[in-house]
Each structure stands twice: as C-alpha cells, then as structure tokens.
Amino acid sequence: MTIKPLIILPDPVLRTVSAPIERVDDAVLKLADDMLETMYDAPGIGLAAIQIGVPRRLLVIDVAKEGDPAQPMVFINPEIVKSSDERSVYEEGCLSIPEYYAEVERPATVTVKHIGRDGKEHTLEADGLLATCFQHELDHLNGILFIDHISRLKREMVIKKFTKAAKAKV
C-alpha cells in the first residue's frame, strides 16, 4: 500500500465529477487499499478517490472509535437511494481543507447502494456519523465540498484563505 498526496483547496481538481468504475479489478482494489492507507495516515475517517487526484467513483470510510479495531469500508459507484426527512447536524472537516471545521446539516439516515470489494452490489442503511461521512464523501465524487453547505460569506473566506496559502507556497 502507498500513501498518496492529498489534493488541497483551491485545486480545481476537487470540483471534478468522478466517472463510474466499469469493473472491480486488481487496480481498483489497490487504489482502495492506497486510499485507506492515505486516510489512516492523514488521519481521517473518509476519503474519496478525487482527493488523491483520481476522478473515479470510489470512496473509503472507517468511523470506528479510537481504540476500537479498524472497520474499513470500500464503496464503489456508491449512490444514495433513500434519505430521511429527519436532519442532523455534525461539525465536519475535510482532509482537502485542513484545519477548517463547520457545522453542516444533512439527512440523518441514508440508504446506500454500492459495489463492494467482492464486485457484488450491496445495500447499507447508515445513520449518525457514518451517514454524515458517507454523504460528505459522496459529495466529493460529484465535485461538491462541505463548504458548499455553509453560508456564502464563510465559504468565500475559506476559499480566499486557502488560495492565499497556495500562492505563498509557490
């Protein structure tokens, strides 16, 4: 497994809509393993392939509590097939927007259809942190960032801060 460099705001790659994965093969499984390694190293609880510059519909999540055994999950071509009317608010962060957090409101529960590592279709009911994390990562696959769910003023301030930091590194 290889730790990959993360794409950081304001890189326009983060706004790319990811393409479906045609079949689950060794290359896709290696990508998933690299993504898990990268996510754990960061450290984070979710990572979409686009965050390492790969515009494919693949995301990984592990919301196990600290001290508990890892529970890595791989979602290939994920989609939400049902979401609740009930809402929940979590303070979200993002590996591509380091050290910035904001409260985001999303559906409290979601039903997710995806292809697993085994190449078969699966359905998962998610609530709590898993539901929030899944929606956050799925947004990445559609070129949406969690800051798109906050006020325009706050979003513009975050983008300006990261744009300035990126220019300072050049």
TrEMBL record:
Catalyses which reaction(s): N-terminal N-formyl-L-methionyl-[peptide] + H2O = N-terminal L-methionyl-[peptide] + formate
UniProt remark on cofactor binding: Binds 1 Fe(2+) ion.
Active site: 137
A Pfam family recorded for this sequence: Pep_deformylase
GO process annotations (BP): translation
Record carries keyword Mitochondrion: no
Cofactor needs: Fe(2+)
InterPro entries xrefs: Peptide_deformylase, Peptide_deformylase_sf
One function term, GO molecular function aspect: peptide deformylase activity
Presence of the UniProt keyword Hydrolase in the record: yes
UniProt keywords, alphabetically: Hydrolase, Iron, Metal-binding, Protein biosynthesis
Coiled coil: none
Cross-referenced CDD domains: Pep_deformylase
EC number(s) stated in the UniProt entry for this protein: 3.5.1.88
Binding site for Fe cation: 94, 136, 140
Highest taxon of the lineage: Bacteria
Family assignment from sequence similarity: Belongs to the polypeptide deformylase family.
Role, per record: Removes the formyl group from the N-terminal Met of newly synthesized proteins. Requires at least a dipeptide for an efficient rate of reaction. N-terminal L-methionine is a prerequisite for activity but the enzyme has broad specificity at other positions.
NCBIfam families recorded: pept_deformyl, PRK00150.1-3
Protein name listed in UniProt: Peptide deformylase
Organism whose genome encodes this protein: Endobacterium cereale
